[in-house]
């Protein structure tokens, strides 16, 4: 597109203001800005702007929403673990961590994966995840691929951190970074594109749903398939307790021939802020807690338990052929619209404005919108304290303090000890589960000082 065609295109969408600072830009800046502007889908943004006041999720009518059948944590067939271990031995499983979010609630000035969460060791989230992958690689005598999805906001620091830390013992070729896409933001009142600076649009990560398209568009999905990978274990960077590529879960997924499998934590309180897995129009889907009416959140079944209690800890297994199917053609996911406070460059005054109220629309893809596209699915209950310690906020619920307390409590449980007063932490290189941990400590083990159990 020539510059005058681009200007005409932006003018026809009422977006000419982006060119206001054009004359002040160097040739290099102009060329970069032109490339950026050419990549924006103005028709899509105009359509999304029209939807800004629509209810955020068009939930089916109540009679088309049902609780999702979930396999209980105590109903796992013993053969599942063997099936999962075989898949690991055969190098058919890759591990994917999404780490592109900006972690605004935590208020940490680096990517969340760098956060020192280890209660005794101070190990970062990335170290803990990478060491789980390393331990699996040792155990199954293979190099389990670790796919790290970053975003423009987190990429450079994440890659640098892995280099600085020697890839935490993993082979460099085992770790594959790929970047999710970006999305512009629109001014809430006018629908105009927000700028970061003259010659620079505001661009944010396009949501964790961006993972699936990025996996395909980067060529990584094809590469994994060619290498014989059949399942991708998906999790979020901010959960230090996640049981990465849990062999029983992998095996259950394979044995049930599901296209997507999800772990579920049972909710105890109706209004807990966690997404809910449910049957929507007969298919497995996830409803955000904010989109489910309060009566439904608190609805109880005949057994007295919450009817919609299948909480989403964002732990899934995706089949590679399923991912291929949904990342091509008409199956691409739709955007969710959120009203947010976004600082922006105001070309009228030449200053950056930090808003105090929501001023912008941001658009994100959600990975769980892929679930209803699966023809076969599986949901498996996991014990919350064993696998879910979300790190979202600086204090209070889901904070570093609560996550560390859960890690310490797990270490005591794994060691078969009553809860003690000093912190104990188990490195993934020491043990990946309770049986392994217990087999390694002396029967007389009784910690009196902060203790980090690590590989010798
Ligand atoms: P959250 O939705 O909790 O967002 O992400 P966040 O960035 O961690 O935190 P806030 O909302 O800004 O406080 C859940 C997971 O999805 C990833 C995050 O890195 C985290 O692992 N994510 C989120 C992405 O990879 N990309 C995104 O665009 C958004």
Helical residue percent? 25-40%
Bound molecules: uridine 5'-triphosphate
Principal-axis shape equals globular
**How many β strands by DSSP?**
22
Give an account of the 3D structure.
With 456 residues, this protein is of the alpha/beta class. The protein is built from 14 helices and 22 strands. It has helices at residues 3-12, 27-38, 42-50, 78-89, 125-139, 155-164, 210-217, 220-226, 247-255, 294-297, 320-326, 384-387, 400-414, 434-440; strands spanning 65-67, 93-98, 146-150, 175-179, 182-184, 186-187, 195-197, 200-201, 203-205, 231-236, 260-266, 276-280, 283-287, 310-311, 316-319, 336-340, 344-346, 351-353, 360-364, 377-381, 424-426, 451-453. α4 packs across α9. The longest helix is centred in the N-terminal third of the chain and has 15 residues, at 125-139. The structure holds uridine 5'-triphosphate (UTP).
Secondary structure elements and their pairing?
Blueprint: H1 3-12, H2 27-38, H3 42-50, E1 65-67, H4 78-89, E2 93-98, H5 125-139, E3 146-150, H6 155-164, E4 175-179, E5 182-184, E6 186-187, E7 195-197, E8 200-201, E9 203-205, H7 210-217, H8 220-226, E10 231-236, H9 247-255, E11 260-266, E12 276-280, E13 283-287, H10 294-297, E14 310-311, E15 316-319, H11 320-326, E16 336-340, E17 344-346, E18 351-353, E19 360-364, E20 377-381, H12 384-387, H13 400-414, E21 424-426, H14 434-440, E22 451-453
Parallel strand pairs: 2-3, 2-10, 3-4, 11-20, 21-22
Antiparallel strand pairs: 1-12, 5-9, 6-19, 7-8, 10-15, 11-14, 11-15, 12-13, 16-19, 17-18
Helix pairs in contact: 4-9, 8-11
